[in-house]
Amino acid sequence: MWFKPWKQNTESTDQVAMDRLPRHIAIIMDGNGRWAQKRALPRSMGHRSGVEALRKVVKACSKLGIEVLTVYAFSTENWKRPKDEVGVLMTLLTEYLRKELQELHQNNVIIRTMGKINDLPLEAQRELAHSIKSTRDNTGLVLNLALNYGGRSEIIDAVRKLSKEVLNGKQRIEEIDEHCFSETLYTQGLPDPDLLIRTSGEMRLSNFLLWQLAYTEIVIVEELWPDFGQKALLEAIKAYQKRDRRFGGIHTS
Ligand code: IPE
Ligand code: IPE
Ligand code: MG
Predict the structure, then answer these.
(1) What total number of domains does the chain contain?
(2) Cβ < 6 Å from ligand 1: which residues?
(3) Which residues are catalytic?
(4) Which of 88, 124, 172, 200 has a CA that sits 20 to 30 A from residue 133's CA?
């Protein structure tokens, strides 16, 4: 049911232009706690509703034909939260993969991850490995899950990797350039995000994709993550399509 033909209308300014879609959308899914607080519910209920929003957004991106969706699900700093909350987040991850894998697979989604996966609970690691393996030959949307991810630690990892290669003679210092560095990051092989969406109105990066966001268009929306869905996604894409991306240059015509 995911692939109903999308209503195409590139003439009206009110529609998403299907020929100018962002290739890669990155999302900082924020505001689950506040969503729950507003309803006098435990934070865990906010996270549970957040998973529903993720499900809708993955579906919408897949249907639209977006190439890559990177979602910030757990940061290296999120370990600072109470143990119970961390536990809920890890359980929800495992549950999400178990429940959704079949549908994701049927819809041609490729699952990949970025972050220090080895430090996640073993059950989550096992479920991730299984999901990655089962979907690796698919050809549709790449769903990139940022888990135990930190932008600074990603850069440090890349520096360590390149340094080792220099020391063992596999890499020449003179040949380390931006392209080579990008290809050493967790996002190896993926284009940089064109659009970054952060929900819940916060205007910060919180250690997300520090290198890759250099020229990304940023759309901050007020909705809390559990309230975000297909409609809000389309609005964010429309906002992106109104931007003038100059990449430091000027327009000559
Ligand atoms: C985002 O929602 C989910 C994660 C960080 C895992 P929050 O839990 O940060 O929600 P707020 O910001 O407290 O409302
Ligand atoms: C960013 O949200 C991390 C994720 C969405 C996973 P946080 O809620 O952790 O960020 P801060 O603490 O408000 O910067
Ligand atoms: Mg938050």
Answers:
(1) 1
(2) 29-34, 74, 78, 89, 200, 225
(3) 30, 78
(4) 88
